[in-house]
């Protein structure tokens, strides 16, 4: 273990514990470690309970992960057997960010020089032209104004419908030497919320992923702040690939990024992996989260349930668009769907681009919770 | 560091627990430790827990034990700096300008400044405790503003300059966890999760808080409430509701209802959700009878 020179040996144990937690994806800041040590000193410590309570209060594990935290604590300070959760380490879900896309960029540029490839590109863009009739262009233009808005902290000056901007009015009055000109108004700005699309690329969704990526491309082009991730057995961020204006080029780039096309599904673990990366989960906060998946989870759905609950605590609106829901006989009857239904805001038809664009454009309008709609149906 | 008198009061977690009990608040060891650490480390205390477990009451008790005034900032969606920090009294400023006529008047004087909770606490950190209640209801931007306040304990007023706290004020934040707070905010605080108490402690709390409830009643209520909480309800009853239930059942019993019947008729103060009521109704008789036994 690395140990700073001027740290007393007794204190090294506490530092080591904090590092152990960090290795298990607990977010712990240096200042928290400092206050942990201060707290232990303040409390005596007279017993192990003091150390445990100091750790709980200063390292602040989230209540969902309290059990895991306790297990690590026991293992580290009491020398119990390694906690069972450690077994998860091996098949920890890999997160891939497309920041490493630079090399591919060069490769692509080189490829484009070949005459063969450029003619292929031309062909593709012809098809693109035809398919613009599917309404994605319109979707892109409408998106910013259709996303639900939140009131910003900042105000804008306005000529009508606002509250009196006393601060500005007063300085106006002072500069006019006490004369009262027409009052100035201000109003709080409305900012469109962020849009987060999570696309299932597993084998069972094979028929739909191409359409979904086109939709995602339009969303990234249209919205101010949109993020797109794909998940199957891994999680991949494809937003910056989709920022390329030309659709076919963007989709080709995205396709090279994703490694787990048409593979299995590990929906729960991948979504949890998403939430454990702070800058990703920060994006989900207050956003409209749309998950494009059939919700068919392999094995136990406990992790999926936890992930969905965490998503719904962060997101402004959590929606699941399932291609299966297009069928009128569809009922959310699978164990996984049944478990996550109470935390979903919407469970909608995702079988066609048309229905999806309609749904995303209607996100700003309030709708009853998914559970109450599907209860009525069944 | 925190001020001297607070440190004196907070000599040890046990001292805090004893003083909390004196002000009618029963804290478990880990809450007392968290309060002790918050006071001694000079950090804000973040209390999270389900609705009705006594987060706000804990803040009131802390203010009482330090013998300080509690300044409460209730958060809501759309709260802004004008509600939390300060505002100028523009009407009075205008009047003052009119009155002054040819004389000069300082319209950014103290008498035109309306101090909102955060500024109130900055001005007298030794006499006040700040409670930021239900911070999960506010917007993210407000959370960021609060973050700035909590790290430096200062407020900049463009017309007046920066106002800094003479000593570190004691700040308590509460959250119902309807949404997750920013990591940066959690990191700066001493954290404590208040859970539901066990039956014995809950009975003690009911005895302490309710008017004139017999000990047997308190124990029965605590047992029954534990049993009810174990069920998957939309809104599990909090401690406040349990106290109310004990009170209501006692009143009904004095009005002539026999025991199990009094509990059943007073269920409306415990469970306030139609679906929960219909889910629990068939079992309620058995739960109450077992709790009374």
- What is the class of the largest domain in chain A in the CATH system? Alpha Beta
CATH classification class of the largest domain in chain B: Alpha Beta
**Rg from alpha-carbon coordinates of chain B:** 23 Å
CATH superfamily of the largest domain in chain A: von Willebrand factor, type A domain
Number of strands of chain B: 9
Terminal Cα separation of chain A, in Å? 58 Å
Strand ordering within the main sheet of chain A = 1-7-6-5-8-9-10
Rg over CA atoms of chain A: 26 Å
Number of helices of chain B: 14
- Biggest protein-protein interface? A-B, 39 and 42 residues
DSSP summary, beta strand count of chain A: 10
Structural features, described:
Chain A: Residues 93-115 have a biased composition (Basic and acidic residues). Chain A: This is VWA containing CoxE family protein. Chain A: It holds the Pfam family VWA_CoxE. The complex is a heterodimer of chains A (378) and B (293). Chain A has helices at 9-23, 30-43, 48-59, 66-78, 102-111, 115-131, 136-146, 166-175, 206-222, 239-242, 247-257, 267-276, 278-284, 302-314, 335-340, 353-361, 370-377; strands at 95-96, 149-158, 163-164, 185-192, 195-200, 226-231, 235-237, 288-292, 317-322, 346-349. Chain A has 378 residues and is an alpha/beta fold. Chain A has 3 domains: 9-89; 99-142 and 193-377, Rossmann fold, CATH 3.40.50; 154-190, no CATH class. In chain A, strand 5, helix 9 (206-222) and strand 6 form a beta-alpha-beta unit. The model of chain A is unreliable at 85-91 and 100-131 (pLDDT under 50). Chain B is α/β, with parallel strands linked by helices. Chain B folds into 2 domains: 4-78 and 118-194, Rossmann fold, CATH 3.40.50.300; 199-292. Chain B has helices spanning 4-9, 13-22, 29-41, 55-65, 81-84, 90-100, 117-123, 140-152, 183-188, 199-209, 215-229, 239-254, 259-265, 274-292, and strands at 45-49, 69-74, 86-88, 113-115, 128-133, 154-157, 161-164, 170-175, 190-194. Chain B has a 5-stranded parallel beta sheet, with helices on both faces. In chain B, strands 3-4 form a two-stranded antiparallel sheet. Chain B has a two-stranded antiparallel sheet with strand order 6-7. Chain B is elongated and about 80 Å long. The A-B interface holds A 27, 29, 31-32, 35, 38-39, 42-43, 49-50, 53-54, 56-58, 60, 62-63, 66, 150-153, 166-167, 169-170, 173-174, 178, 188, 278, 282, 285-286, 310, 313-314 and B 13, 29-30, 33-34, 36-38, 40-41, 43, 46, 48, 78, 80-81, 88, 90, 93-94, 97-98, 107, 139-142, 145, 177-180, 182-183, 186-193.
């Amino acid at each position: 273990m690395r140990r700073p020179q001027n740290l007393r040996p007794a204190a090294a144990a506490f530092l080591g514990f904090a590092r152990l937690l960090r290795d298990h994806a607990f977010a712990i800041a240096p200042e928290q470690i400092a206050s942990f040590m201060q707290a232990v000193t303040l409390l005596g410590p007279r017993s192990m309970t003091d150390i445990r309570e100091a750790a709980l209060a200063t390292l602040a594990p989230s209540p969902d992960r309290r059990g895991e935290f306790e297990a690590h604590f026991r293992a580290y300070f009491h020398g119990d057997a390694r906690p069972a959760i450690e077994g998860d380490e091996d098949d920890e879900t890999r997160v891939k960010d497309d920041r490493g896309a630079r090399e591919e960029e060069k490769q692509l540029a080189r490829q484009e020089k070949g005459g063969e490839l450029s003619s292929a590109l031309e062909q593709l863009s012809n098809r693109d032209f035809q398919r613009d009739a599917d309404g994605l262009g319109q979707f892109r233009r409408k998106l910013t104004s259709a996303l639900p808005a939140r009131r910003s902290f900042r105000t804008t000056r306005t000529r009508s419908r606002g509250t009196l901007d006393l601060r500005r009015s007063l300085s106006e009055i002072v500069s006019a030497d006490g004369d009262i000109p027409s009052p100035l108004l201000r109003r709080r700005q409305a900012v469109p919320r962020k849009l987060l699309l999570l696309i299932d690329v597993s084998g069972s969704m094979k028929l739909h992923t191409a359409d979904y990526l086109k939709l995602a491309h339009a969303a990234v082009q249209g919205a101010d702040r949109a993020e797109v991730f794909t998940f199957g057995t891994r999680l991949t961020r494809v937003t910056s690939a989709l920022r390329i204006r030309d659709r076919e080029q963007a989709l080709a780039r995205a396709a090279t990024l994703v490694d787990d096309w048409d593979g299995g599904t590990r929906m729960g673990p991948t979504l949890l992996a998403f939430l454990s990366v702070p800058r990703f989960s920060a994006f989900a906060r207050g956003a409209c989260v749309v998950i494009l998946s059939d919700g068919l989870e392999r094995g136990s759905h406990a992790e999926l349930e936890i992930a969905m609950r965490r998503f719904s605590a962060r997101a402004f609106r959590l929606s699941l668009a399932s291609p299966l829901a297009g069928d009128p006989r569809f009922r959310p009857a699978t164990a996984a769907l049944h478990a996550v239904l109470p935390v979903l805001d919407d469970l909608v038809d995702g079988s066609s681009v048309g229905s999806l664009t309609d749904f995303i454009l209607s996100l700003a309008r309030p709708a009853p919770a998914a559970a109450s709609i599907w209860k009525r149906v069944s | 560091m925190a001020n001297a008198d607070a440190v004196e009061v907070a000599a040890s977690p046990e001292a805090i627990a004893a003083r909390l009990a004196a002000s009618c608040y029963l804290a478990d060891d880990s809450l007392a430790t968290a309060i002790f650490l918050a006071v001694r480390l000079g950090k804000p205390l973040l209390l999270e827990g389900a609705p009705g477990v006594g987060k706000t009451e804990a803040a009131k008790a802390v203010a009482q034990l330090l013998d300080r005034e509690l300044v409460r900032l209730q958060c809501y969606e759309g709260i802004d700096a004008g509600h939390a920090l300060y505002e100028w009294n523009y009407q009075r400023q205008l009047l003052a300008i009119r009155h002054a006529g040819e004389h000069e008047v300082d319209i950014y004087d103290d008498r035109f400044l309306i101090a909102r909770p955060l500024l109130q606490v900055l001005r007298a950190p030794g006499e006040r405790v700040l409670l930021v209640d239900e911070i999960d209801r506010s917007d993210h931007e407000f959370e960021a503003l609060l973050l700035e306040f909590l790290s430096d304990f200062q407020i900049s007023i463009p017309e007046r300059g920066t106002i800094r706290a003479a000593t570190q004020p004691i700040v308590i934040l509460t959250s119902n966890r309807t949404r997750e707070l920013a990591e940066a905010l959690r990191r700066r605080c001493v954290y404590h999760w208040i859970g539901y108490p066990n039956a014995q402690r809950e009975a003690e709390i009911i005895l302490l808080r309710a008017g004139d409830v017999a000990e047997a009643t308190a124990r029965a209520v605590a047992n029954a409430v534990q049993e009810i909480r174990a069920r998957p309800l939309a809104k599990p009853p909090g401690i406040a509701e349990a106290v109310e239930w004990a009170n209501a059942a006692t009143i009904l019993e004095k009005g002539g209802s026999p025991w199990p019947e009094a509990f059943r008729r007073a269920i409306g103060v415990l469970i306030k959700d139609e679906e929960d009521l219909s889910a629990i109704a068939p079992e309620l008789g058995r739960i109450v009878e077992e709790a009374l036994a």
